[in-house]
Design goal:
The protein has 409 residues and is an alpha/beta fold. The protein has 8 helices and 23 strands.
Length: 409
């Protein structure tokens, strides 16, 4: 039934079939701190940020997708609206509403071409097994989309949720750096979460990202924490406070630009991601190397130039080898970052220190074999002896090492 005569009274049918190969359904929260697909297949978020890759030329978008195919990333943070910021001066190909900058926008009329292209980009990610962590609002704007009236905000949220929620790889991120959008208050963000819940019948994941002040991730409509912070040791505190998965989506970027958030080394980024995982959470990647054409991965995509993506692929392999969801574990006062699965499997991340050994307190009555994981050189070195109780495990005296322990009969 429709109020449009051309389609009113039309009938049709569809067939519901078994899922295609690789289709595990949408991602859900499981075991309080972790994620899995709808069919129970474990999902470990290994994300990257390309804020407005979907607003570039066809050529650049295709280059981004080819780069992703070779990477380990299975989540992409991306914006609905175009972005105006450092290294982001180009106009988008289309605009989300009818109208123009000079005469103004008609916020009651959406531009179908704009949203059809957004759908195409989401589908391209889905074909590659990548979740689209879709940012619905942000402050970096010269067109007025960050400053719409409340009724336009609500209409837009209802529209985009109804239009996109059928895609299995959608995550809803209410905002990038929500606290910079000072025209909106906590009541507005609470209302926006309510709209998303109302119009998304499939219950996709919902989060909100901060600049300085964290939103209250303990609210029931927030499914997981999306956090910007450079101290990954706080992962333990956030897990304890919010009792939800913690994803530090922005922990600074590998690169060489002037702002401090965009010039950490590859080694430091790999360390921060290891620190988050070693404490029971997750962290995301970004890359900001200067480019003569202002094509920086963190915003426009293209190709990756850094040294961290290869090491992140190694980290994802380690994640996927775990026998189950790992939770924070106490293994002695010398071990600050440790996670484990029951009393069968442990990973202790040593970090950017370089000890020649670590004292560990293992559960009584069990013996363990150990391996030394080198997160930078991407090696796994088995140790010949078995360990039990309070023991000392030898290390090579290098940074970015971890110890992996398996219980043996």
């Amino acid at each position: 039934h429709s109020n449009i005569n051309e389609i009113n009274g039309r009938e049709g049918a569809f067939v519901c079939e078994a899922p295609s190969e690789g289709n595990h359904g949408p991602v859900r929260v499981v075991d309080r701190y972790h994620f899995a697909y709808e069919d129970g297949t474990p999902y470990h978020p290994v994300g990257t940020t390309c804020y407005v890759w979907n607003h570039q030329t066809d050529t650049l978008e295709q280059e981004t997708l080819k780069t992703l195919e070779k990477s380990a990333f299975n989540k992409m943070r991306m914006c609905v609206f175009p972005k105006h910021y450092l290294f982001n001066e180009n106009e988008p190909r289309w605009y989300p509403f009818e109208g123009n900058i000079e005469e103004g926008w008609d916020f009651t009329r959406f531009n179908p071409e704009y949203f059809a292209h957004l759908e195409q980009c989401i589908e391209e990610l889905m074909r590659r097994g990548i979740e689209a962590d879709l940012i619905l609002f942000h402050e970096y704007d010269r067109w007025g989309f960050a400053h719409m009236p409340a009724d336009a905000d609500d209409r837009y949220l209802g529209y985009i949720t109804a239009r996109l929620s059928a895609y299995r790889n959608i995550w809803w991120s209410l905002a990038n750096e929500y606290d910079l959008m000072t025209e909106k208050d906590t009541a507005d963000w609470d209302r926006f979460f309510g709209i998303i819940k109302r119009y998304d019948p499939y219950g996709h994941l919902r989060s909100i990202h901060n600049c300085h002040e964290l939103y209250d991730h303990g609210k029931e409509w927030v499914t997981h924490c999306s956090i910007q912070h450079s101290d990954l040791a706080l992962t333990s505190q956030w897990l304890e406070t919010y009792k939800k998965p913690v994803v530090v989506d922005e922990c600074c970027y590998e690169g060489d630009i002037s702002p401090n958030w965009g010039n950490i080394t590859a080694r430091e980024l790999v360390h921060r991601m290891g620190e988050a995982y070693g404490r029971g959470g997750y962290a995301g990647h970004g890359e900001t190397y200067l480019d003569s054409d202002d094509i920086l991965w963190w915003s426009k995509g293209g190709r990756l130039r850094g040294q961290s993506p290869e090491r992140i692929k190694f980290l994802r392999t380690i994640m996927e080898q775990a026998p189950g969801d790992l939770i924070p574990t106490e293994l002695g006062k010398d071990i600050k970052s440790a996670v484990g699965f029951e009393d069968q499997y442990y990973i202790c991340y040593i970090g950017n220190r370089q000890p020649r050994g670590k004292r560990i307190s293992l559960p009584e009555g069990k013996k363990y074999r150990a391996e030394v994981l080198d997160g930078w050189n991407m090696t796994v070195t088995p140790l010949m002896e078995t360990y039990e109780g309070v023991c000392e495990i030898a290390l090579p005296g290098l940074p970015y090492q971890a110890i992996r322990l398996y219980a043996v009969e």
